[in-house]
Design a protein that fits this description.
Blueprint (H helix, E strand, L loop, with lengths): L4 E2 L5 E4 L4 E4 L2 E3 L2 E5 L2 E6 L2 E4 L2 E3 L2 E4 L4 E5 L7 E3 L2 E3 L9 E3 L4 E3 L3
Parallel strand pairs: 1-5, 2-6, 3-7, 4-8, 5-9, 6-10, 7-11, 8-12, 10-13, 11-14
Length: 106
């Protein structure tokens, strides 16, 4: 996803869906009128692996990833995913309102 623009989820928006799995996804220079390059609201589980978020801009926090689950799952995961130079008010890159395991190098 490169140089995308949208009101919600500059690169991708998913609302009230099942599992979302992305492998080797790249969100680069996406602009959101509200929140996040990748906006996931009310999904079941997230598996985001070997992915990158680079130079994304949002007018509200977060800049790169917004995530909420509609079930009480604890097996959503970020694995080997990197975040570089993403920008939103307060410099918040990720907002996870549901459990999310972080398995990424810092």
């Amino acid at each position: 996803f490169s140089e995308c623009t949208a009101e919600w989820g500059g690169g991708m928006y998913v609302d009230n869906s099942g599992d979302v799995a992305l492998e080797s996804a790249r969100f680069v220079e996406c602009t959101s009128g509200t929140q996040a390059a990748l906006y996931l609201n009310g999904i079941e589980r997230l598996a985001l692996t070997n992915s990158q978020f680079v130079d994304n801009i949002a007018s509200q926090t977060p800049a790169a990833l917004f995530f909420t689950s509609r079930i009480a799952a604890t097996d959503s995961i970020l694995r080997n995913t990197t975040f570089f130079r993403n920008s939103a008010p307060g410099n918040i890159t990720i907002l996870a309102a549901s459990p999310l395991t972080w398995d990424c190098p810092l």
